[in-house]
Design brief:
Layout (H helix, E strand, L loop, with lengths): L10 E3 H7 L6 H8 L9 E4 L2 E5 H8 L6
Antiparallel strand pairs: 1-3, 2-3
């Protein structure tokens, strides 16, 4: 069974990710709606009403890494 550490800083809410990368608060949701193929498989997920994204997903979509 795959274990996921939700305390991992590489996993964040879409709003936190947008803030870190300097984007609008609904950036991840907009990109996911219009171009879902831009996110690598498993890098974004809707949990209830909360959209969660990984660092890998944000790097793929924005083209740069803000967490280094």
């Amino acid at each position: 069974m795959l274990k996921i550490n939700l305390n991992d800083p590489d996993i964040m809410s879409s709003q936190d990710a947008a803030r870190i990368w300097g984007k609008a608060p609904d950036y991840v949701r907009q990109v996911l709606r219009s171009n879902p193929h831009r996110f690598p498989v498993g890098s974004v997920r809707l949990i209830g009403r909360q959209l969660v994204v990984t660092r890998e997903g944000m790097v793929a979509v924005t083209g740069h890494d803000k967490l280094n």
